[in-house]
Amino acid sequence: MRHPFFAVLLTTAMLTAAEPRKIFDYPYQQHDFANGLRLFTVPTDYPNIVALYIVVNVGSRNEVEAGKSGFAHFFEHVMFRGTKKNPPQKWEATMKAAGAATNAFTSDDLTGYHATFSKQGLASILELEADRFQNLDYSESLFRTEALAVNGEYNKNSANPTSKLSEKLRETAFDAHTYKHTTMGFLADIKAMPDQYAYSRQFFDRFYRPEYTTILVVGDVNPDEVKALVQKHWGGWQRGQHVAAIPAEPRQTGERKANVEWPVPTPPWLAVAYKVPAYSDETKDTAALDLISALAFGSTSPAYQRLVIQEQKVDVLGGGAAQRVDPSLFTVFSRVKAEKDVDSIRESIVSTLNGFKDTPVETKKLDAVKKNLRYQFALSMDNSQAIASELAGAVALRRSPETLNKLYAMYEQITPEDLRNVARKYFIENGRTVVTLSGPKAK
Amino acid sequence: MMKLVLTLLFMTAISPGMDFVAMPGQSPLIQFRIVFRAGSANDPKGKAGAAAMTASIITGGGTKTMTYQQVLDAAYPMAARLRDQVDKEMIVFSGSTHVDNLDGFYSLVRDAILTPGWREDDLKRVRDDVKNALRLSLRENNDEELGKEVLYSLLYKGHPYEHPSLGSLAALEALSMADLQAFYKEHLTQANLTIGITGNYPKGFVERMRTDFSVLPKGKPSVLKLPPLAPLKATQVTIVQKKTRAVAYSFGFPIDVTRDHPDFPALLLANTWFGPHRNSGGNLYQRMREIRGLNYGDYSYIEYFPNGMFQFEPDPNLFRRSQIFQVWIRPVEPPTAHFALRLALFELERLIDKGLTESDFETTRDFMALNVNLLMKTKSAELGYAIDSKAYGIPEYTSYLQGALKKLKYEDVQKAIRKHLRKDRLQIVAISDNAEELKKLLLSDAPSPMKYNSPKPGDIVEEDKLVSTKLLGWKAEQIAVVPVEEIFK
Fold first, then answer.
1. Interface predicted TM-score (ipTM)
2. Residues B295, A99: C-beta atoms closer than 8 Å
3. Same domain? A224 vs A302
């Protein structure tokens, strides 16, 4: 019986040493292939299981052409429509033979494909996946059918008001940048997807290339064996040339407001957002904003204590900065129990953030948040798939797990003065967008 | 005399008391699952939600010595939190902590469960939270989960399983602190308690917990005698009228098979071929979504699986002594709603008439034998499954299933399908913005031809002719329309 002893030794050390060790302390192997493909292999001591994540650095951020919102996500679906050698049924059969659970996901900055399976399946699955990433081939008819499934996905999400709230928030806050639309895309663009067959071939040709792709293999594996398999099946993949020209977002010059009328009764929702810079593990902004979100609206914050526990005016309160490749939003979401309180809750959120500009945070409170973040991370790494999933997020931002170590080291360096500086810089009226959502007005 | 001693010994052995599932290991992450064998089935008459509110005030309220805010402040630096899950026959308190913080976190867990604070301001907030979970998260904002829970309520009419585990809105409004305390006293007892723990906890820790939890009343097992379910005389369709874009369906019927039933592995295999959860290899998914693009996915179940839209693996500790077979059709565009229902019923009939092929049987069996390992990929899940296995009286789940699959024959699966599944006397639930029109369509039995956005292969065109003209033969009294406001009142 093997034990996850690396995790034990290293995670424990990390949390008790006077000088904090690296937050992600699994020994891993990185290999950059000649064609631009990158491989990370992370042996863990969780027995028998392997988690394979294939991350493509393309997401809704890359959807720069008009009428193409939602395409990266749609393309994630199309990737399951097979190749000449491995039509979908054969793909399913190979995955089944390894007992695999498979899926995929898309966000602003990445598309990820994952399979978790018994280790015997590693060679056949790496070969199978190499085939679809290089030789995807589907008929227009299958393509058109898949577009309907995406419409079905929009439909199943649509009963939840927060989907609409996020859609409206992005639409209002951004003018030029592609973060203006959600990863699902605008409904009109989703409806037009069946007619985009030729474009889909172009999309594959542009982005499904080794220089955009990182393979993560985490679990009961031998790095040398994985490297040889990847070389064999993925080594011949041709590099591409395309780089999407993502429009820069112009500076916002005034507060923006919008409201969504929801067709069924609901307590009102409120989103208060500020423009914040792109993710960075080099400057203090990202780390400081993360700490502020916890200090301002976490379960031990004065705002949470007052609004959720004492006055009980809201039952949802929280948020923070989205960690994105390009400048994005710091958003606070709240569900307000009574319509009459919406204005005062909005004011409370704004003044809570403004408070960070003047009043320095107590060191004790700051330390508690730093500790919370480190333990939260440690508690989340409880199986190979969770580890791979965490790394996929890091790969989307910097194509390396090291960005996690840099960010967590940065958290440790942040001082109350840093928080003040960041608050003064970003929590400004000209960068603010407020969106509300409310149910039908009583007749 | 000897006989008396033996009798006494035997009685001690079987007399109910606290039970432990301890899984020591090397991981610095310590996981707890503190499980009481009682649940919403034990809610007193007129007090639906007593179990849910009691569990919620324990995890979302203060203790005798600390306010809720103080509890949050203490737990925060550890990033540890006690959670609850309430189902018909189990209440679970679970949490995990790094071994560095074991003492601090354990004392919060212990005090929350053993000495709740019972404060009125906590009750007020927790009541709002549970009501919103029922009214908003379930009824208003999630058509799919709504369809499933309405299906359960209808199939379990007059049964202790009838109301959702969260309760009903009126009962939640009326529950008093005394009601919660009464529930706590009667059901959170040593007789109902199993404590599960895993990780690198110190020697003697289990004994420490045993001593601490001995302050709970000994109590009596809360296991109810479940009445048999009255079978439906004919298929019933309930259409919930709600403002929404698409039409979501759930349908099913009760089955006699639970995890400890001899036919469980066979029926699970049939279901794993027919409609495995969120798995693109399932037959229903292939026929409805992959070939025809009707929706986002289509699945079937032989065990309760809540929150399926948010997760891929089921949560453990949803032990039930009665289960249903259930088909989940994710929302379809309204013009295809009639056809989609016909197709799902057509596939169910085909499953019952033809079953699997021998080769489907073999590939599904081999898949399951490996895939079961993934259910145990976290220590917390492994612990949960171990507790469930005790409740069902079966061996450790992975070896139980793998062993059974080895012995399973093709004919066993075919027999189990015919014995436990059926085509008629179904309860069907639809969520639709145009309930009356859907009712009219279903009653008309008129053809519902499909128009696709691309040509389909000849066999699908032929099959569609059969499906779109499939006669359902339902009468007006079999189809009811219910406004959403009437649900879970």
1. 0.90
2. no
3. no
